[in-house]
Design a protein that fits this description.
InterPro entries: Aromatic_CoA_ox/epox, Ferritin-like, Ferritin-like_SF, PaaA_PaaC, PaaC. The chain has about 290 residues and is mainly alpha-helical. Helix content is about 60%, strand content about 0%.
Length: about 290
């Protein structure tokens, strides 16, 4: 598939450019005015667990993207990565707010983001790996955004209207995230000898972590269709590789699962960076 055809194919999920960076951070209560009653027939435990896990994916992913600030190859790329991170941060806020309502604890966004240690997080482990070089970051962004987009498209019809609304709002954003990553992977893979080497290395490093995404069934009780999301991830991963001239290997999967609490050694230092100010000045406000 040519890069033009790949671009058109992936862009099909985004009707226009509006709403790419729609969440932002300039509001107090992300679910203000929304009926947050859990509908009859919805398993509140499964809903809370899923919202927490998806929120953790977004928060950890946003923090890794924030590490490109002042260090990206170009100013335009830096701004794009910062805005993608803000999209994910906005999704995390909504998902954490829903978690605190559904699990009965009444905890808010800051409680989930700043006052949990690494062993309480339930994100997929790919999100917590070190930032790496730009090629690795693009391979990771493609994998996570493709998989998350596939889930959100299905969760837009979830029986919980709040989760459905969060997912529907995130679809356009995630379609752009996926497109941004795919475009850069093709550009690097079809570029210089050095850029192609690095892009292949990034693909090879991310590849073994795809198995964890494909095996995640946490969204099944809410209509997530894990098998469908896994198939879409594999299709986009392979189509992008072909367009970029990359080789997709038979990657051996890593053992363990972030959803079950298995962590790499990289999450705790990342959270220390994220949580240090809040923990040093508890209760502080602007």
């Amino acid at each position: 598939m040519s890069d033009e055809h790949l671009s058109a194919s992936l862009a099909a999920g985004a009707e226009d450019g509006e709403g790419r960076w729609a969440f932002g951070t300039g509001f107090e209560d992300p679910l203000h005015g929304v009926d947050t009653t859990v509908p009859d027939g919805v398993d509140a435990g499964a809903l809370a667990a899923l919202c927490l896990a998806l929120g953790d994916d977004a928060l950890v992913g946003a923090q890794r993207l924030a590490q490109w600030t002042t260090d990206a190859p170009e100013l335009e790329i830096e701004l794009a990565l910062a805005n993608i991170g803000l999209d994910l941060l906005g999704q995390a806020r909504l998902l954490y707010a829903r978690t605190g309502q559904v699990d009965g604890t009444g905890r808010g966004e800051d409680d989930f983001a700043y006052w949990r240690d690494a062993d309480a997080f339930r994100n997929v482990r790919l999100a917590e790996l070190p930032r790496g070089d730009f090629a690795f970051s693009m391979a990771r962004l493609l994998a996570l955004s493709t998989w998350r987009l596939a889930l959100f498209q299905r969760l837009a019809a979830a029986p919980d209207p709040v989760l459905a609304a969060i997912a529907a709002k995130g679809v356009k954003e995630l379609a752009y995230h996926r497109q941004f990553a795919a475009d850069w992977i093709v550009r690097l893979g079809d570029g210089t000898e050095e850029s192609a080497r690095r892009m292949q290395a990034g693909y090879d490093e991310v590849g073994p972590w795809l198995g964890e995404l494909a095996a995640d069934t946490s969204a099944e009780p809410l209509g997530g269709d894990a098998a469908g999301a896994a198939a879409e991830l594999r299709q986009v991963w392979e189509e992008t590789a072909r367009a970029a001239g990359l080789t997709v290997g038979a990657y051996p999967a890593h053992s363990g699962a972030g959803r079950s609490g298995d962590r790499t050694e990289h999450l705790a230092p990342l959270l220390e960076e994220l949580q240090s100010v809040a923990r040093a000045h508890p209760g502080a406000a602007w």
